[in-house]
Design a protein that fits this description.
Helices cover 18% and strands 27% of the residues. The chain is an alpha/beta fold. Strands 5-4-1-6-11-8-12 form a 7-stranded mixed beta sheet. It is globular and about 65 Å long.
Length: 418
């Protein structure tokens, strides 16, 4: 894979992830207790032998820049090995934010053109999966393709609206149609935002799109134009894949990893220093701790009861506290007698003594957050303090800086702002 340049689209934010992307891009949201979401694609690239990586970042990139650093954690440093952050920049005459994914790549054509190799692999930095890209390249080259896209099957999608790109593929694997987010899907295949381009074809279409495009999105304009030329193909991926676009998706992906701890094989590479894993003590469990079907990473201390949950570094569950089917990001504290169920908590949240947060069962969200909380998950922003004996119902959102009262109550599907 030395002849491939990888570009990772990692700069965006989605409203559906609500407070989880208030301070970071979606690719930098923690996942699984000891990773960031972008670690999955970086691991895939390294284990596939890709040596040159550019990360296109725009929205609040600090966490991403610190985490990736010089690429040492993934072996992407040294002679002819690197990962470079590619933010928008000021040129001689103008300064422009990225105006879509096609524009983001177009603004970095100097970088693309100057990198050796004939192929460019464009990937999303916010998908959760493991894949070896080498067979994809082999088939791409054997077919003399200008574009090869990867898809997965979504049962029941055909004939229904889709939030993904949907292809039509003939019996030879050739792409004969592609539509982004159709109101009526023509197949059960959905795009994984894995695009392998012949470099010269990509450059030609990006230059044309910069002049004639409207949305300046790869999926919306560049891909359909390439498909129309007849040298595009599709591949179907049958492994585990998750797109944590909504809070419900994010929560469900965590529960699926707990159900099958072997999903990611030999593991995922990450920067243990920035995530606080390298300098933490091992996870500790008190004499009365009860832990079932959970993931508890270094630095966590459990004296209470934890089941079906993921605890990040530095999380502390005091004696008499109970955490059920929840995801707690780093340094959360669950004090004595508190009970959490189906909670997703950003870093540093304190749940006071006797607090009750979340619960079982689904609650309609009345259309809030694009349906992101429709599964009854209660979401808390970074640094929130839940006072003692405070009760927060199911399907609630508690924003950064929210004011809660001791013994107070937030009803199901409620929102607490500043």
């Amino acid at each position: 894979m030395r002849e491939v340049l990888a570009l990772v689209l990692a700069g965006g934010r989605v409203e559906e992830l609500s407070v989880l992307t208030g301070r970071r891009p979606k690719s930098a949201v923690p996942f699984g207790g000891q990773y960031l979401v972008i670690d999955f694609v970086l691991t895939n690239l390294v284990l596939s032998g890709v040596r040159r990586v550019g990360v296109l970042s725009q929205y609040r990139p600090t966490d991403l820049i610190e985490h990736i650093g010089g690429g040492e954690s993934w072996g992407l440093w040294g002679r002819e090995r690197y990962v470079k952050i590619l933010p928008p920049y000021q040129g001689t005459h103008t300064s422009e934010w990225y105006d879509g994914t096609a524009d983001a790549v177009f603004q970095n054509l100097d970088f693309v053109s100057s990198t050796p190799g004939e192929h460019v692999l464009v990937l999303s930095g916010d998908h959760i999966y493991r894949m070896d890209y080498r067979p994809l390249l082999e088939r791409h080259v054997a077919r003399d393709a200008d574009l090869t896209c990867v898809f997965t099957r979504i049962p029941g999608q055909t004939g229904a609206p889709s939030r993904f790109g949907v292809p039509e593929i003939d019996s030879d694997g050739r792409l004969i149609g592609y539509e982004e987010k159709p109101s009526v899907a023509r197949s059960d295949l959905a795009s994984l935002t894995i695009y392998l381009f012949r470099k010269r074809a990509l450059i030609r279409h990006l230059k044309n799109n910069s002049v004639c495009g409207t949305t300046h999105q790869l999926y919306d304009e560049v891909l359909p134009a390439l498909v129309a030329e007849g040298r595009s193909y599709g591949e179907v991926f049958d492994g585990y894949w998750a797109y944590a676009r909504t809070v419900g998706d994010y929560y469900r992906a965590h529960m699926e990893t707990l159900d099958d701890p072997t999903l990611f094989g030999s593991g995922v590479l990450t920067n243990e220093e920035t995530l606080g894993l390298a300098w933490r003590a091992p996870a500790a469990f008190g004499p009365r701790a009860e832990v079932r079907s959970s993931s508890v990473v270094p630095g966590a201390v459990v004296d209470g009861s934890v089941s079906g949950s993921v605890l990040g570094p530095g999380v502390r569950v005091e004696a008499g506290a109970e955490v059920v089917d929840s995801v707690l990001l780093p340094d959360c504290v669950v004090e004595r007698g508190a009970r959490l169920e189906r909670v997703v908590s950003d870093a540093g949240v304190v749940f006071g003594e006797g607090a009750r947060v979340g619960g079982a069962g689904e609650v309609p969200d009345h259309g809030r957050d694009g349906g992101s909380l429709s599964e009854g998950v209660t979401l808390l922003a970074q640094g929130v303090v839940v006072p003692p004996r405070c009760v927060i119902g199911r399907n609630c959102t508690v924003a950064d800086g929210a004011r809660l009262t001791e013994g107070g109550r937030v009803e199901d599907a409620g929102t607490v702002s500043r």
